[in-house]
Amino acid sequence: MIFTASQIAGLLEGDVEGDPEIAVHKLSKIEEGEVGALTFLANPKYTSHIYTTKASVTIVNRGFVPEHKLTTTLIKVDDPYTSFSKLLEYYNQVKNNKVGIENPVFLSETATYGEDFYLGAFAYVGSNVKIGNNVKIYPNVYVGDNVVLDDNVVIFAGGKVYSETIIGKNCVVHSGVVIGADGFGFTPDQNGEYVKVPQTGNVILEDNVEVGAGTTIDRATLGSTILRKGVKLDNQIQIAHNVEIGEHTVIAAQTGIAGSTKIGKYCKIGGQVGIVGHITIGDNVKIQAQSGIGRNVSDNETLQGSPALSYGDFNKSYVHFKNLPKIISRIEVIEKKH
């Protein structure tokens, strides 16, 4: 795909300084810019690179005034980072704008789909599936019976969506994701052997949810496992049965959330966090990486450690943790004197 500086400026509502007809066909970092590349300058510490970059076009802040001669054409915008992100999104939409049904696939006669539908080779779409407009299902995807995929859903290669799952508008499901597998429900019988508890619920992803590669989201025992609108999950996360995650919460890789836990809105959860089941975590909570959460958490708390302490208490305690060998040595010396 080839675009001119003027075309890009029109898309971003920016102003061109330089050659409006210069063309670009790829994206790059500013320090790695080459002829034909488009880049951006948002962080002031990279300013020196704008005088040496070979990129044909650079997106900058409207207030930027060069101190030396430039060889790159500028597009001036209100926020370079946001504008570049918008451009990346547009680029992805164009690149991934596949349409049509490839062969071989299985598409149930009772499934329905809207306009601009793409179904990649070796995909399976079960009975009574309802698919909206502009949905993209890549090769080797499994979509079970009675699933609902709303407008603009993308499921990348190898994704698995079990029956009765409901996925809202503009959701992205990356490769290797499994949505709707049975929750980890077993109960011991009289002999101490574990008997499976049927998992009869489903999973609901509201609008604008993104699920990273290799993540698993279990169906509810009864009712629904729910990810509210705007939730963003990293790769390799485990969400257990009947969990509910509030709007616009973000969770980093390798986190595990046990069954029936409720997490509030606008939370930020770091990587490798472990959260026990049947607790409630409030809104705007921040949990540092590798923390273990075993209790209810109030709104606006920041936690670290395992078991987790308040962030301030953890940092104060850590000063003593790392000095424990010295402290013990001093105590031993004192004890010997007495």
TrEMBL record:
Its EC number is 2.3.1.191. It catalyses: a UDP-3-O-[(3R)-3-hydroxyacyl]-alpha-D-glucosamine + a (3R)-hydroxyacyl-[ACP] = a UDP-2-N,3-O-bis[(3R)-3-hydroxyacyl]-alpha-D-glucosamine + holo-[ACP] + H(+). Residues 22-89 form the UDP-3-O-[3-hydroxymyristoyl] glucosamine N-acyltransferase non-repeat region domain. Pathway: Bacterial outer membrane biogenesis; LPS lipid A biosynthesis. GO terms for molecular function: UDP-3-O-[(3R)-3-hydroxyacyl]-glucosamine N-acyltransferase activity. Gene3D superfamilies: Hexapeptide repeat proteins, MurE/MurF, N-terminal domain. InterPro entries: Hexapep (IPR001451), LpxD (IPR007691), Trimer_LpxA-like_sf (IPR011004), UDP_GlcNAc_AcTrfase_non-rep (IPR020573). The active site is at H241. Transmembrane segments: none annotated. Keywords: Acyltransferase, Lipid A biosynthesis, Lipid biosynthesis, Lipid metabolism, Repeat, Transferase. Belongs to the transferase hexapeptide repeat family. LpxD subfamily. Catalyzes the N-acylation of UDP-3-O-acylglucosamine using 3-hydroxyacyl-ACP as the acyl donor. Is involved in the biosynthesis of lipid A, a phosphorylated glycolipid that anchors the lipopolysaccharide to the outer membrane of the cell. PANTHER family: UDP-3-O-ACYLGLUCOSAMINE N-ACYLTRANSFERASE, UDP-3-O-ACYLGLUCOSAMINE N-ACYLTRANSFERASE 1, MITOCHONDRIAL-RELATED. NCBIfam families: lipid_A_lpxD, PRK00892.1. This is UDP-3-O-acylglucosamine N-acyltransferase. It comes from Arenibacter antarcticus.
